[in-house]
């Protein structure tokens, strides 16, 4: 796939922590305009891979390109193209939701009129009107996810990279986020979504990559990777196994 066809291209990305290889020479291309799911068991290297892809963690080897722009040799240009929601994102906790969006917009270099309008739009669509003056330190985990997504969208990126965006989000808020992300892709944006919830990935995504032990076990259009099975069944066959039939803990009643 050419640079011009890829929203994100990873070329031989590797990362070692002491004697543990977290990511092992990963090559991966995310097509422009795709809703791309990244799945894998705990400890598979998904978060490390995404952190290197977007410029939060320097790789030991390899390169990452966002719409053809090298993340590590041209970080300022690359980061204008991407909005990021990391897992466990740290936020300024003594600001309200409105203040946080205003601060982040100005920090991004947006003019005050644009920041004000986009802040209003995001507070509305993510249902923050009743909580816009609540300090972030008092937000629930789900509210933090939503305000984090708002900061990722604020500068109108072409690519969203979201690490577990639906974790601890209530069903109504999850529906709002799904609709927003689907609209983003429909209007030409690209989304990379990391999640452990297979039905969610299967419902939202048109492409998927399965990561296991720091390597890509399978990648491509969702139908091709699933090959007539559910994503959960394909995932288990690629990276894990089911418990033996009838096996149980003898000491449990």
From TrEMBL:
UniProt xrefs under Gene3D superfamilies: P-loop containing nucleotide triphosphate hydrolases
Record carries keyword Transport: yes
ATP-binding is among the record's keywords: yes
Pfam family, one: ABC_tran
Organism phylogeny: Bacteria, Bacillati, Bacillota, Bacilli, Bacillales
Superkingdom of the organism of origin: Bacteria
InterPro entries the UniProt entry points to: AAA+_ATPase (IPR003593), ABC_transporter-like_ATP-bd (IPR003439), ABC_Transporter_VariousFunc (IPR051782), P-loop_NTPase (IPR027417)
Protein name: ABC transporter ATP-binding protein
Keywords: ATP-binding, Nucleotide-binding, Transport
Domain ABC transporter: 8-238
């Amino acid at each position: 796939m050419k640079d011009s066809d890829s929203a994100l291209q990873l070329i031989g990305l590797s990362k070692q922590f002491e004697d543990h290889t977290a990511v092992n020479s990963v090559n991966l291309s995310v097509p422009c305009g795709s809703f791309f799911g990244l799945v894998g068991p705990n400890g598979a290297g998904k978060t490390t891979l995404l952190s290197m892809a977007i410029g939060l963690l320097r790789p030991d080897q390899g390169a990452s390109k966002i719409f053809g722009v090298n993340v590590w040799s041209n970080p300022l240009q690359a980061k204008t193209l991407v909005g990021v929601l990391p897992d466990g994102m740290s936020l300024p906790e003594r600001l309200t939701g409105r203040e946080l969006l205003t601060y982040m917009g100005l920090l991004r270099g947006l003019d005050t009129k644009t920041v004000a309008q986009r802040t209003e739009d995001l507070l509305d669509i993510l249902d923050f009107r009743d909580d816009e003056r609540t300090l972030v330190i008092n937000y629930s985990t789900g509210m933090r996810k939503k305000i984090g997504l708002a900061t990722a969208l604020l500068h109108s990126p072409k690519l969203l990279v979201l690490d577990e965006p639906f974790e601890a989000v209530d069903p109504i808020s999850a529906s709002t986020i799904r609709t927003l992300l689907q609209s983003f892709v429909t209007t030409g944006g690209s989304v990379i979504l990391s999640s452990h919830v297979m039905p969610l990935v299967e419902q939202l995504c048109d492409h998927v990559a399965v990561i296991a032990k720091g390597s890509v076990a399978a990648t491509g259009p969702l139908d091709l990777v699933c090959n007539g099975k559910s994503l959960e069944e394909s995932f288990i066959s690629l990276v894990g196994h089911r418990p033996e039939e009838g096996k149980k803990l003898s000491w449990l009643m």
